[in-house]
Amino acid sequence: MAVYTDVSPAELEAFLSGYDVGTLTSFHGIAEGVENSNFLVQTTRGSYILTLYEKRVNRDDLPFFIGLMEHLAARGLSCPQPVAQRSGAVLSEIAGRPAAMVTFLPGVSVRRPTAEHCAELGRGLARLHLAGADFALARANNLSVAGWRPLFEAADGQADGVAPGLAAAIAAELATLEASWPKGLPAGVIHADLFPDNAFFLDEKLSGIIDFYFACTDFLAYDVAVCLNAWCFEPDGAYNVTKGRALLSGYEAVRPLSDKEKAALPRLARGAALRFLLTRLVDWLNVPEGALVRPKDPLEYLRKLRFHQAVDSAQDYGLAA
Ligand SMILES: Nc1ncnc2c1ncn2[C@@H]1O[C@H](COP(=O)(O)OP(=O)(O)O)[C@@H](O)[C@H]1O
Ligand SMILES: N[C@@H](CCOP(=O)(O)O)C(=O)O
Known about the structure:
By secondary structure, the protein is of the alpha+beta class. About 40% of the residues lie in helices and about 15% in strands. It has helices at about 10-15, 60-75, 115-130, 145-160, 165-180, 220-230, 240-255, 260-285, 300-310; strands at about 25-30, 35-45, 45-50, 90-95, 95-105, 185-190, 200, 205-210, 215-220.
């Protein structure tokens, strides 16, 4: 459960008095996620998600995230909607943290995605990319290649305690990617963390996308690479090419990839695997005392990285020749 900062009923009632959302009937911390503190808040008017922004969220980036959710929804993408206070402000503060309330999105996330879910997700990701194309704000991806070395340095001394040889494996991959990271690919707004827990389904159809707090401006194909990592591996670590094919053909049915993007996909997939390996490693080594959070396994992403290192071309991911 991710609750780093607790909220008392009295604090929440005072907070809600600034909104036109009725009166509080119940609330509880949410048992998923690892980044921010989230609460399901129920009032006489409905259900809302209260997010207290924690460690990796920079206050200055909040207008980008909030504006992006509004922009995407205005273009027909189903995503949480920021709820404004009576004053019109969306960003607020509670328990000493920056905070916002968004609408509750119906749907369920799938633990074991099928190829059909992957196809739906691919289509949804491409729609997100197209809908984000005219978003006016930009935000650099601070967790792209330039951000990986600082993460590694934060964990270097303890990495071998997690798995023998891990520090050397990361150092070698980091050097390779720093020297060969793709340049000049089509860029725009990306979600950057579209894992199965951030996609909701109803009747097997993608019904909504949540958690835009890593969203940024970067290569669109990098977002595809993040999703191949997150959706297309089996629990035993094997890559499922049927799921990969479904995700990629779903994506391409809405936004075809250029030849340059296809050629870059194996490198982008390695980068995405290293990015999640590093953030998970740092989180694994730094669980804040008293926080209700279950850190995610960094080594899952070492195994995925090993797979990508052996890939020859995007066809190995299931891309049509
Ligand atoms: N708008 C929403 N509607 C419904 N459930 C939500 C919404 N936002 C978050 N949740 C629930 O809260 C969980 C954690 O939210 P998430 O944004 O993934 O957290 P984090 O910021 O820690 O990544 C989600 O997995 C989901 O169950
Ligand atoms: N998806 C990341 C962790 C952050 O995402 P959350 O939505 O689970 O908070 C990972 O799997 O490492």
